[in-house]
Amino acid sequence: xxxxxxxxxxxxxxxxxxxxxxxxxxxxxxxxxxxSGIAIPFTLYxxxxxxxxxEVLTSTGEKLKLAYSCWVYYVNFTEETNGKYLIVKESNxxxxxxxxxxx
Length: 103
Known about the structure:
Layout lengths: L1 H17 L5 H11 L7 E5 L7 E4 L5 E4 L3 E8 L4 E8 L5 E7 L2
Antiparallel strand pairs: 1-4, 2-3, 4-5, 5-6
């Protein structure tokens, strides 16, 4: 009986961990923490909905395509021409940082 209970508990924990997705509020916190060390002024823009097929055209004409669900943020540095995209993967919260020029 104890083995069955333990097995069911392990299955339950695995099922919960597989469904763990990052909400927009959690992504906002991750991005804010990621940018906390920047001393120059910037403006942060965010898409309100999760993006399922995000594509960026780089300054060299290359396309950056993301085929996974993610939260997308753009950081515009006030006194510079460079900016960056911060892309937070919805499934695990990893952050991809893509620097851009004249965007």
